[in-house]
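From: lab user (bench 3)
To: helpdesk
Subject: output format question, protein + adenine

Hello, I'm new to running complex predictions and I'm not sure whether the block I got back is the full result or only part of it. Here's what I submitted:
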Amino acid sequence: MRIDIISVVPKLMESFFAHSILKRGQEAGHVEVVLHDLRDYSLSKQRQVDDYAFGGGAGMVLSVEPIARCIRHLQSERHYDEIIYMTPDGETFNQQTANQLSLQGNLLFLCGHYKGVDQRVRDMFITKEISIGDYVLSGGELAAAVCADAIIRLIPGVLNDETSALTDSFQDNLLAPPVYTRPAEFEGIGVPPVLLSGHEAKINEWRFEQSIERTKARRPDLYQKSGL
Ligand code: ADE
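Helpdesk reply: Thanks, we reran it on our side. This is the complete output you should expect:
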Protein backbone atom coordinates (compact mmCIF):
# COMPACT_ATOMS: atom_id res chain seq x y z
CA MET A 1 0.00 0.00 0.00
CA ARG A 2 1.05 3.58 -0.59
CA ILE A 3 -0.23 6.46 1.53
CA ASP A 4 0.35 10.07 0.45
CA ILE A 5 -0.44 12.88 2.87
CA ILE A 6 -0.75 16.54 1.85
CA SER A 7 -0.27 19.08 4.64
CA VAL A 8 0.90 22.62 5.34
CA VAL A 9 2.93 21.26 8.28
CA PRO A 10 4.27 17.88 7.09
CA LYS A 11 7.07 18.04 9.67
CA LEU A 12 4.43 17.58 12.34
CA MET A 13 3.91 14.02 11.11
CA GLU A 14 7.48 12.93 10.29
CA SER A 15 8.37 11.44 13.65
CA PHE A 16 4.99 9.76 13.98
CA PHE A 17 5.73 7.52 11.00
CA ALA A 18 9.41 7.03 11.91
CA HIS A 19 8.94 4.75 14.91
CA SER A 20 7.72 1.38 16.10
CA ILE A 21 5.17 -0.60 14.09
CA LEU A 22 4.73 2.07 11.41
CA LYS A 23 8.47 2.25 10.84
CA ARG A 24 8.78 -1.54 10.64
CA GLY A 25 5.83 -1.74 8.24
CA GLN A 26 7.60 0.68 5.90
CA GLU A 27 11.01 -0.95 6.23
CA ALA A 28 9.53 -4.36 5.44
CA GLY A 29 7.93 -2.92 2.29
CA HIS A 30 4.31 -3.40 3.36
CA VAL A 31 3.53 0.30 3.15
CA GLU A 32 5.11 3.48 1.85
CA VAL A 33 4.11 6.76 3.49
CA VAL A 34 4.99 9.95 1.59
CA LEU A 35 4.42 13.40 3.10
CA HIS A 36 3.90 16.40 0.80
CA ASP A 37 4.30 20.05 1.72
CA LEU A 38 1.39 21.95 0.18
CA ARG A 39 3.58 25.09 0.04
CA ASP A 40 5.73 23.37 -2.61
CA TYR A 41 2.71 23.70 -4.92
CA SER A 42 2.03 27.38 -4.20
CA LEU A 43 2.27 29.74 -7.17
CA SER A 44 3.31 32.72 -5.04
CA LYS A 45 6.80 33.79 -4.04
CA GLN A 46 5.78 33.79 -0.40
CA ARG A 47 4.61 30.18 -0.79
CA GLN A 48 1.15 31.29 0.31
CA VAL A 49 -1.51 28.56 0.32
CA ASP A 50 -4.43 30.31 2.04
CA ASP A 51 -6.58 33.40 1.68
CA TYR A 52 -9.43 35.30 3.29
CA ALA A 53 -12.89 33.79 3.10
CA PHE A 54 -15.22 35.34 0.52
CA GLY A 55 -18.13 36.91 2.38
CA GLY A 56 -15.93 37.75 5.35
CA GLY A 57 -15.61 36.14 8.74
CA ALA A 58 -12.71 35.07 10.90
CA GLY A 59 -10.13 32.57 9.71
CA MET A 60 -8.23 31.74 6.56
CA VAL A 61 -9.24 29.19 3.94
CA LEU A 62 -6.84 26.86 2.07
CA SER A 63 -6.95 27.88 -1.61
CA VAL A 64 -8.01 25.61 -4.44
CA GLU A 65 -5.03 26.22 -6.80
CA PRO A 66 -2.11 24.74 -4.80
CA ILE A 67 -4.22 21.78 -3.70
CA ALA A 68 -5.39 21.12 -7.26
CA ARG A 69 -1.79 21.29 -8.52
CA CYS A 70 -0.58 18.92 -5.83
CA ILE A 71 -3.38 16.38 -6.27
CA ARG A 72 -3.12 16.45 -10.08
CA HIS A 73 0.64 15.98 -9.88
CA LEU A 74 0.18 12.91 -7.67
CA GLN A 75 -2.66 11.59 -9.85
CA SER A 76 -0.40 11.80 -12.89
CA GLU A 77 1.86 9.25 -11.19
CA ARG A 78 -0.72 6.75 -9.95
CA HIS A 79 -4.42 6.12 -9.47
CA TYR A 80 -5.78 6.73 -5.97
CA ASP A 81 -8.48 4.42 -4.63
CA GLU A 82 -9.64 7.16 -2.26
CA ILE A 83 -8.80 10.83 -1.86
CA ILE A 84 -9.68 11.55 1.74
CA TYR A 85 -10.22 14.96 3.31
CA MET A 86 -9.82 15.06 7.10
CA THR A 87 -12.53 17.31 8.53
CA PRO A 88 -14.71 17.45 11.65
CA ASP A 89 -17.83 17.36 9.43
CA GLY A 90 -16.85 14.06 7.76
CA GLU A 91 -18.17 10.58 8.57
CA THR A 92 -16.88 9.35 11.91
CA PHE A 93 -13.91 7.01 11.57
CA ASN A 94 -14.26 3.53 13.02
CA GLN A 95 -12.72 0.05 12.80
CA GLN A 96 -14.95 -0.91 9.88
CA THR A 97 -13.67 2.01 7.81
CA ALA A 98 -10.10 1.13 8.82
CA ASN A 99 -10.67 -2.46 7.64
CA GLN A 100 -12.05 -1.30 4.28
CA LEU A 101 -9.27 1.21 3.66
CA SER A 102 -6.57 -1.34 4.61
CA LEU A 103 -7.61 -3.37 1.54
CA GLN A 104 -6.85 -0.50 -0.86
CA GLY A 105 -3.67 0.05 -2.87
CA ASN A 106 -3.16 3.83 -2.90
CA LEU A 107 -4.67 6.36 -0.49
CA LEU A 108 -4.28 10.12 -0.55
CA PHE A 109 -5.04 12.17 2.57
CA LEU A 110 -5.57 15.92 2.52
CA CYS A 111 -5.22 17.63 5.89
CA GLY A 112 -7.33 20.72 6.42
CA HIS A 113 -6.01 23.71 8.33
CA TYR A 114 -7.34 27.05 9.53
CA LYS A 115 -11.03 27.34 8.56
CA GLY A 116 -10.81 24.43 6.11
CA VAL A 117 -10.41 24.17 2.35
CA ASP A 118 -12.21 25.94 -0.50
CA GLN A 119 -15.39 23.93 -1.11
CA ARG A 120 -14.38 23.44 -4.77
CA VAL A 121 -11.53 21.16 -3.61
CA ARG A 122 -14.08 18.95 -1.90
CA ASP A 123 -16.43 18.98 -4.87
CA MET A 124 -13.76 18.32 -7.50
CA PHE A 125 -11.29 15.90 -5.92
CA ILE A 126 -12.40 14.39 -2.63
CA THR A 127 -13.96 10.90 -2.61
CA LYS A 128 -14.29 10.47 1.15
CA GLU A 129 -14.47 12.85 4.13
CA ILE A 130 -13.45 11.55 7.54
CA SER A 131 -13.71 12.93 11.08
CA ILE A 132 -12.01 11.23 14.02
CA GLY A 133 -14.56 12.54 16.52
CA ASP A 134 -16.84 15.36 17.53
CA TYR A 135 -14.17 17.88 18.48
CA VAL A 136 -12.17 20.38 16.45
CA LEU A 137 -8.40 19.99 16.08
CA SER A 138 -6.23 22.83 14.86
CA GLY A 139 -5.47 20.84 11.71
CA GLY A 140 -6.18 17.51 10.04
CA GLU A 141 -2.61 16.20 10.55
CA LEU A 142 -3.20 14.35 13.80
CA ALA A 143 -6.46 13.00 12.42
CA ALA A 144 -4.73 11.70 9.26
CA ALA A 145 -2.02 10.15 11.42
CA VAL A 146 -4.66 8.41 13.54
CA CYS A 147 -6.37 6.97 10.45
CA ALA A 148 -3.10 5.94 8.80
CA ASP A 149 -2.00 4.15 11.99
CA ALA A 150 -5.29 2.25 12.31
CA ILE A 151 -5.10 1.27 8.62
CA ILE A 152 -1.41 0.33 8.42
CA ARG A 153 -1.49 -2.06 11.38
CA LEU A 154 -4.20 -4.05 9.56
CA ILE A 155 -2.07 -4.67 6.45
CA PRO A 156 -1.05 -8.36 6.51
CA GLY A 157 2.51 -8.77 7.72
CA VAL A 158 2.76 -5.40 9.51
CA LEU A 159 2.09 -6.82 12.96
CA ASN A 160 4.49 -9.51 14.17
CA ASP A 161 1.70 -11.82 15.23
CA GLU A 162 -0.74 -11.64 12.34
CA THR A 163 -3.64 -12.85 14.42
CA SER A 164 -3.33 -10.01 16.89
CA ALA A 165 -5.29 -7.50 14.79
CA LEU A 166 -8.10 -10.03 14.59
CA THR A 167 -8.47 -9.99 18.37
CA ASP A 168 -8.42 -6.18 18.66
CA SER A 169 -11.26 -4.33 20.29
CA PHE A 170 -14.10 -3.52 17.83
CA GLN A 171 -13.33 -6.29 15.33
CA ASP A 172 -16.62 -8.04 16.21
CA ASN A 173 -18.22 -5.01 17.80
CA LEU A 174 -16.77 -6.30 21.07
CA LEU A 175 -14.12 -4.69 23.26
CA ALA A 176 -10.93 -6.67 23.90
CA PRO A 177 -10.69 -8.70 27.14
CA PRO A 178 -8.23 -7.80 29.95
CA VAL A 179 -4.62 -8.90 29.45
CA TYR A 180 -1.89 -9.76 31.99
CA THR A 181 1.83 -10.48 31.91
CA ARG A 182 4.47 -11.51 34.47
CA PRO A 183 4.67 -11.45 37.44
CA ALA A 184 1.78 -13.81 38.15
CA GLU A 185 1.35 -12.04 41.48
CA PHE A 186 1.95 -8.34 42.23
CA GLU A 187 1.51 -6.95 45.75
CA GLY A 188 -0.78 -9.84 46.61
CA ILE A 189 -2.92 -9.47 43.49
CA GLY A 190 -2.86 -12.51 41.23
CA VAL A 191 -4.00 -13.01 37.66
CA PRO A 192 -7.12 -15.01 36.74
CA PRO A 193 -6.06 -18.67 37.29
CA VAL A 194 -7.51 -19.83 33.95
CA LEU A 195 -4.79 -17.83 32.14
CA LEU A 196 -2.14 -19.94 33.90
CA SER A 197 -3.92 -23.23 33.18
CA GLY A 198 -2.48 -23.79 29.69
CA HIS A 199 -5.96 -24.96 28.62
CA GLU A 200 -6.46 -23.09 25.32
CA ALA A 201 -10.18 -23.75 24.88
CA LYS A 202 -10.94 -22.62 28.43
CA ILE A 203 -8.77 -19.52 28.00
CA ASN A 204 -10.57 -18.58 24.77
CA GLU A 205 -13.92 -19.09 26.45
CA TRP A 206 -12.88 -16.90 29.41
CA ARG A 207 -11.64 -14.17 27.05
CA PHE A 208 -14.86 -14.22 25.07
CA GLU A 209 -16.94 -13.94 28.26
CA GLN A 210 -14.78 -11.07 29.50
CA SER A 211 -15.16 -9.30 26.15
CA ILE A 212 -18.92 -9.59 26.42
CA GLU A 213 -19.01 -8.35 30.03
CA ARG A 214 -16.72 -5.42 29.26
CA THR A 215 -18.71 -4.42 26.19
CA LYS A 216 -22.04 -4.64 28.04
CA ALA A 217 -20.70 -2.49 30.87
CA ARG A 218 -18.75 0.10 28.88
CA ARG A 219 -20.34 0.23 25.44
CA PRO A 220 -23.94 -1.01 25.51
CA ASP A 221 -24.41 0.55 22.05
CA LEU A 222 -21.68 -1.73 20.61
CA TYR A 223 -23.05 -4.75 22.46
CA GLN A 224 -26.41 -4.21 20.72
CA LYS A 225 -24.65 -4.16 17.35
CA SER A 226 -22.74 -7.38 18.09
CA GLY A 227 -26.02 -9.32 17.87
CA LEU A 228 -25.03 -11.50 20.88
N1 ADE B 1 -9.66 18.50 11.50
C1 ADE B 1 -9.99 19.23 12.58
N2 ADE B 1 -10.70 18.51 13.45
C2 ADE B 1 -10.83 17.26 12.92
C3 ADE B 1 -11.47 16.08 13.33
N3 ADE B 1 -12.15 16.00 14.49
N4 ADE B 1 -11.40 15.00 12.53
C4 ADE B 1 -10.75 15.07 11.34
N5 ADE B 1 -10.12 16.16 10.90
C5 ADE B 1 -10.17 17.26 11.67
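A quick orientation on your result: The beta strands are 2-7, 32-37, 50-52, 60-62, 82-92, 106-111, 128-131, 185-186, 189-190. Let us know if anything else is unclear.
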